[in-house]
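chain below, 724 aa
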Amino acid sequence: MNKILEIKNLSKNYQTIKGEIKAIDDISFALENEEVLCIVGSSGCGKSTLLNILAGLDTKTSGEIKIKDGAKLGYMLQEDALFPWLNILDNACLGLDIENDFKPNYEIIKGKKKEVTELKKDVKDADMVYLATDPDREGETISWHIYDEVKVPEEKYKRVVFNEITKDVVINAINNPGKIDMNLVKSGETRRFLDRIIGFRLSKLMQRKTGGKSAGRVQSVALKLIVDREREIQNFVPREYWTIEADFKDFKATLDKYHGKDIEVANEVQADEILSNLSKSFKIESVTEKEKNKVAREVFKTSTLQQAASNKLGFAPSKTMKVAQDLYEGKTLKNETVGLITYMRTDSVRVSDTFVKETFGFIKGKFGENYIGYVKKGKKNENMQDAHEGIRPTSINRTPEEVKAYLTNDEFKLYKLIYTRALASLMADAKTLATTVILENNGYTFKATGSVLTFDGYLKVYSEYEDSEDVILPDLKNYKSGCITADDITKTQHFTKPAPRFTESSLIKEMESLGIGRPSTYATIVGTIKDRGYVVLKDKKFEPTEIGIETTDKLQEFFSGIVNVEYTANMEEDLDKIAENKMDYLKVLHEFYDEFEPLVEKAFHEMEKKGPEETGEVCPECGSPLVIRKGKFGEFIACSNYPTCKYIKKEKKEVIEICKCPKCDKGMIVERKTKKGKIFYGCNNYPKCQYALWYKPTGDICPDCGELLVDKNGETTCVNCNKE
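prediction:
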């Protein structure tokens, strides 16, 4: 007899208001080496309780448990702690042999064996195999997987790379092939292994301890940025300050200095004192004019495209990348199919000499030679990969208007944005005459600034996407030594504001600046933290949920050295060094795992599991306390004695009616949520009336068009005519 597990007279009792409940009643059994024991029974009979006790996740009431010295105990949690897209074995394993230098166990995706078999046959019959996957780290890894799985002979394959799908570029790539870059593959594999180890281990930890659905190398850092910003906002203490402004007939000037020194007005008493010392007569000390250039921005890269599409078009990052993918893969124009833009996953703003030459010719012909600009280089970034061009149209001669008929509305909007930005980037600078007026009044200096556009340059095409709002000043040349009288001098109270909550656009910008993630992952990361319920979008700004905050706090308690900006950015640098053959990928993996795994084991044992919050009510069926539980569709109130008692309290959520629906005139506008938790405002007469808005109505009506007024980022705006 070689017993590895022995249980004698094991019992487990639970106390309720109505008395004691026996979950396990005097169980005894033994398990020998290599023996398989199956425990079956109806729901609530104590199977999970028994396993939880063996795993150390629950305590016994009485009895004895003996585990053979040296024996290891593994426990696969119930269904709610599994990854639903994986089978039981895959959930129990990482798919990596850690002790054998992280050797992966690759398997063909279920349902795809037929395609792989056909590929093997095609390769066998082919004279040459061309691997033309995406020109990036992930694409190179996919090419290698195909090469490895279908057993392509070394002499029978060529790797072709192109970042635009046009006839000339594709033919040139085929005529100048290479081989698979194994350093790039190792980098891609390392990233995959790291994400798998971190994702699997931390996700299962969070599922067990907090109810969170997942955690990850990059997603958890992105979530932390949002949580940290929220706490900054909550802890922010506003500081009062006042401005004093002189209002003249054609312009306004603001108090700037007192006797040549900067001045800050802290309260109303100081403001009133200053006003009492001022007259309405101002002496014009100086009027200076200086010609300045407004420089066009370089072509888009992935991050700036996602930001611009979010700000200008209202596209989510995932939508931007999907539409861009369609434009890249090609659209049928008349009698040919052609890719309209270059590769859309890039952190470079470089453009080809061919495109520059073509565009300069286009600008000269359409606008004149004086509108020809120069090539923008962009800011140097040590983490930037320059393998691909910036995002641009494949031909500047293919204008948005010419292709509009062949595109969907979203495709046209995005193509126009990309096209216009690329065209503007190679046009001449706009020129302005910047004017500064300095006025003096009893020792107090007031200042007014403005500018006049003297040459539109790139603004000839890009003005609709430009955010600048220059103040236009009148001609003050005749007042250089004279005086001018103010119509009024006013004081205005202000309070300092905290940093704003992140939008999808600003979060991507922040991630890029910190070196977190890559162009290919920005949209996925943002989408993941939304889908997991860690954040919600309110007025297009991220707010962390309770579970998002709790998940972040727990990860920081046990993994602060790994789940942080610096570590994640450094890891991205290591991946780049692997791709450049400057670092050994196995060294990176071993060093990470040796540090990470002990932390995970410690967290599983020491991290306090958050129990359901009691409501203060008792179950009407068994008398046990009622608790708040989290389910697939949000929170609900149920019995704490589940699964013995399966009582669920049915209650209606309070619905606040904002205003009457302007479409059906029968329903009321109420706050609602999408399946992904995004807040919107719609008619409660749905589905008969499908009127809906992203912004919260104020309840007032636009005096010009009669549509609803909404609160759009702190400003009241009409949903129809956009009047404020």
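The first helix runs from residue 47 to 54. The radius of gyration is 33 Å.
thats it, cya
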